[in-house]
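Fig. S4 source data, part A: sequence.
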Amino acid sequence: MKEKNQNILRALIAVALSLCVALLSVWAVVTEKADINLAINVGKASSFARVTRFNTYSNGKVQDSFDNYVSEFGGRFGEYGTATLRENILSLNRLRVDDRVDFVIEFTDKSSVDIQYRVVLECANDYYGMYEGLKVKVGSNYLDTTEYECSYIDGQPAPIESEWAMFPKGRDFDRIFVTVMLPQEGSAYSGRGTQLSVSVHVIPHT
């Protein structure tokens, strides 16, 4: 009888541990970064983000355009500047005042629960010191965006983090419109360059 009780206890412990592992696995997925062009699929959680459009502008005029996603995006500006998106790294070189790059992130999640997501842009390499001169806009369309100023805090580049957006289970996808630009007030940074990492952060909806 004692041995039978011990076997039952072992079985219950095994089930409890299995449930803990399952719950931790789902949590790990939901809180992981879903980087641009990176799919995450574990259990019932599945997030995917990709860039579907990429345009560069100088003085309001389109310089280069890509309508379909490819592994590398590249654009040019009016005065020899360039913008390149490789995986999740946006490289900006020799931008002039009023140069900007627009791109659209298409985000989807097939989880069985409601989630929240936000777009995060971080300075990956400020090799030519242009990060502090940039402005970033993020929104549901280009006419409804929130503007952020890139800056340094305590000697370190501060990340740009958009507001959390709700993504209910069953929704097909969301489009997030992002603009990175060198405004008039950033003229002191004209001709420089920097690199930004672009990612989508996902957490459970509470």
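Fig. S4 source data, part B ends here. Helices lie at 2-31.
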